[in-house]
Design brief:
The chain is an alpha+beta fold and 325 residues long. It is built from six helices and 19 strands.
Length: 325
């Protein structure tokens, strides 16, 4: 069984972090520095495993330069290619798009088009852009601009890495035939099935621990699979998104099977569950949370990283035909 390094936030700010990482910062090594832009925003890239040639979601967290959260409304994102570690280049303009705020599940979204300063207890989330296609691998800058209430237009930049191909399972690929832990697993501690057992003394969502991915594939059933560790996830997103999947399972029980895969088999000794490692452990790094939608034919239909909208996932479940039997 593979082990992982201690969990650390993938992003720089804990309360805004949109993913957890159990690896080092190897993906940032040697990257060119982002070009300076107008001061005002700190931009934290929340999306991992970006790759060239396919439309993807890109999410960023935004704060002011003095650390205040920016939430709600929309932000404009502009991308530019700046070369590779071996051959840096002057910025070459790329895609431009509008990113909408996605709030952490369970928090109240006040809506509206205007970003504003919020407390972490009021709103935590990311700005997500849809269908961003990078035409080549290498390093890119993302510049975010937001017209923040009472502060005016603010902008800031960050750098992200784009690979030639996806490192993790991606849409269009066959799903891995994984024998993940379930409520029937006899050879694992309960906390390895769901880390909330350590704090609650029970598994709060047993319906998400009935199926293995392998069984779903064998029976030709679509599956919605969430990977996350609700207790230990530094970003504080894993618990809410697992709750979201549990709620969706009640509404769409005729469309798919719903599965939660806990990251840690033994958190104290930093041992990762094999199912999580098979899907997410690459290059000595593991990120979470992730959500995968698998079709009845075993093909990955979509995936989401860090944080996602319930309505967005529900729309894709609505497109699935009712299951037989």
């Amino acid at each position: 069984m593979r082990s992982a390094r201690p969990l650390a936030p993938l992003l720089a700010l804990t309360l805004l972090a949109a993913a957890c990482s159990s690896g080092g910062g190897g993906s940032n090594a040697g990257r060119p520095s982002a070009s300076p832009s107008a001061p005002g925003l700190a931009v934290i890239v929340a999306t991992t495993d970006l790759y060239a040639g396919a439309p993807q979601r890109v999410a960023v967290g935004l704060t002011t330069v003095d650390g205040q959260l920016v939430s709600y409304g929309t932000a404009e994102l502009a991308f530019a290619f700046i070369g590779t570690a071996e051959t840096p280049s002057d910025p070459e303009p790329g895609p431009e798009t509008t990113a909408a705020f996605v709030i952490t599940y369970g928090m109240k979204d006040r809506g509206g088009d205007t970003p504003e300063i919020t407390l972490p207890s009021e709103a935590r989330g990311v700005y997500e852009a849809q269908d961003v296609t990078f035409d080549r691998a290498g390093y890119w800058t993302v510049t975010a601009t937001a017209d923040v209430q009472d502060l005016g237009e603010l902008s800031g930049s960050s750098t992200l890495a784009v690979n030639e191909t996806a490192a993790l399972p991606a849409p269009g690929q066959p799903a891995l035939e994984t024998e993940n832990l379930t409520m029937d697993s006899q050879d694992a501690p309960m906390a390895a099935i769901d880390s909330r057992f350590t704090t609650e003394g029970e598994i709060p969502d047993p319906e998400l621990h009935r199926w293995t991915i392998a069984r779903g594939l064998e029976e030709g059933r679509p599956a919605l699979v969430v990977f996350g560790t609700p207790v230990y996830c530094v970003s504080q997103f894993c618990g809410p998104v697992t709750d979201m999947v549990q709620d969706l399972s009640h509404r769409y029980e005729d469309r798919a099977v719903f599965i939660h895969i806990e990251i840690w088999r033994d958190y104290e000794n930093q041992v990762v569950n094999k199912a999580a490692a098979d899907w997410l452990y690459r290059n000595d790094e593991l990120t979470e949370p992730w959500l995968y939608l698998i079709g009845a034919d075993g093909t990955i239909l979509d995936r989401w990283a860090a944080l996602w909208s319930e309505d967005e996932v529900a729309t894709e479940l609505d497109r699935l035909p009712p299951m037989k039997g």
